Amino acid sequence: MPDSLQLQWRHVGLIFRKELAAYFNSTVAYITLVVFLAITGWFFSSSFFIINESDLRILFGVAPIIFLFFIPAITMGLVAREKSGGTMELLVTLPLADWEIVVGKFLAAVTLIAVALGFTLFHFLTLLGVATNIDIGAIIAGYLGLLLVGGVYAAAGVFCSSLSSNQITAFILSFLIVFVFFMLDKMLMFMPGFMTAFIQYISIEYHLGNISRGVIDSRNLVYFGSMIGLFLLLAIRVLEMRKWR
Description:
mainly alpha, 0% strand, 245 residues
């Protein structure tokens, strides 16, 4: 790896560690993790003990809904907090590129999402102890799908946080964007016929559904990668605009 590229990724790592430490040095990470685990645990327990459903389908079904609130909450301050606190100007004086700041913050948010999903593996271990007909491949694919959805929502959250110095505004904007993506496939019946294929393709639930069934298609991976890249690029462009003011 060229020295310049290695240095750039070292900068990304610095931002990543800074943001991850900020999460766990405040109550934000703990509150959101506890709420996330409490809700997913309740739904899993309900399906497991009440209707005797020994799989994780209900968890994979409810997690994207919780993400609508969980991820905007953990991303709303990533850039907005820097702007409101005046520390963004300090970052600008450091030898950091805008993309290094954005990617480092994005990776910290994705890591927190991965930690939250990691704690739900307790439910998977519970199933292993009581059930014999578990499709482990589908479960692994389901977790991959949730992490990719979390990545798209986190990228959208970073973009929205870059738009405002107000964290509540960033939260609302982020929620609206991810809610639209969540609802797209549910609105197909109201769309003109010539638009249904396009709307279905940009719907995040369509691609998550494919992966959750254990079908890891390159088209789904390209979709998630493209959406993450788009929102991160938009966030970088917003940060670059300050140079022209």
